[in-house]
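seq:
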Amino acid sequence: KDLNCPLITPLFADKTFSYYFNQPIKPVWSEEYEKNFRRCVEYAREFKKGDSGLMMIGNVGTGKTTLQACIIHELEQKGKICLLIQFSALLDLMIQACSYDAKKSIFQLYNILSQFDYVVLDDLGREKYTEKRLEIAFRIIDCLMNNKVTVSITANQECLQSLLKIPEYNAIIDRLHMMCPEKMIFTG
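struct:
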């Protein structure tokens, strides 16, 4: 895929389920994290394009993005095309595509986005909104939903709460709840 960005950042390039399974000493995790880890392993194992995604909500540094990277590596081994991207970075790419000298049009980027099997919108709610960015955010989510791309999100609770205060965001939140009905909580 050619979004002019990495499909997964170098920080998460080595995060795999097998890395954690093959540790000589088993990591000490909370019962909650162990449950979330096991659910993610099962989710990756049973994945089919168009399935419902995961909504991972929790504090900073609780392992949400790491588990998504593990899912992505598992899916890529099955030949799935995946993307892990901060939602604010995706919005920036789309805004850049609106400029007259852009190498790809915004419509080409929507087409590229629609061809992924699995997309993780990381750190949802940290982005800043203008009227244009709100319009594009809706179009991104709508494009993914209409093309049956499986979408998962990671977010902090306070960031999601701030999005709920934006009236125009209700349609986006509504779609995300339909696309990501399974909610996983990360507290520490």
